[in-house]
């Protein structure tokens, strides 16, 4: 999502969407949540961040650190392979007989 991209770029996020995105933002301490469709709260949050560059930097740093710790491709791919291996009863990295790396059976 765009929010994760902003966090990866060490930019603070002002979020006006509730739900999972808010949970992630708050877990990461990477931005400010404002109530959806509250233009006044959005403007106030943006102005507050503009007035406090150290807070901007802190929130941005928190977001980047969160992304690097939890959303690296290699560890995610490894966890996915392990989950698939567990679900299928196969060892991670070992393909069943007749299956090529593309996931298709050999003709």
Mind explaining what this structure looks like?
It is a single chain. The protein has 107 residues and is mainly alpha-helical. Helices cover 59% and strands 6% of the residues. The chain has five helices and two strands. The protein has helices at 2-8, 20-28, 39-51, 53-70, 73-88, and strands at 13-15, 31-33. The protein has a two-stranded parallel sheet with strand order 1-2. The chain is elongated and about 55 Å long. The two termini are 39 Å apart. Residues 102-106 have low confidence and may be disordered.
Concise structural overview:
By secondary structure, the protein is mainly alpha-helical.
Low-confidence stretches: 102-106
How far do the termini sit from each other? Answer: 39 Å
Structural class: mainly alpha
Write the element-wise H/E pattern from the N-terminal end onward. Answer: HEHEHHH
Strand coverage percent: 5-15%
Q: Which outline best applies?
A: elongated
Residue-averaged pLDDT:
87
Main sheet overview: 2 strands, parallel
Strand order of the largest sheet: 1-2
The assembly state of the depicted protein chains is single chain
Key terms:
two-stranded parallel ribbon, 5 helices, mainly alpha, 107 residues, single chain, 59% helix, disordered C terminus, 2 strands
Topology, element by element:
Layout: H1 2-8, E1 13-15, H2 20-28, E2 31-33, H3 39-51, H4 53-70, H5 73-88
């Amino acid at each position: 999502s765009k929010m994760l991209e902003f966090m990866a770029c060490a930019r603070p996020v002002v979020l006006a969407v509730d739900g999972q995105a808010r949970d992630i933002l708050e877990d990461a301490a990477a931005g400010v949540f404002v109530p959806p469709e509250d233009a006044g709260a959005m403007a106030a949050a943006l102005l507050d961040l503009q007035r406090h560059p150290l807070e901007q930097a802190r929130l941005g740093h928190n977001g980047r650190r969160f992304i690097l710790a939890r959303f690296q491709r290699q560890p995610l791919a490894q966890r996915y392979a392990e989950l698939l291996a567990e679900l299928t009863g196969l060892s991670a990295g070992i393909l069943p007989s007749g299956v090529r790396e593309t996931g298709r059976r050999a003709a």
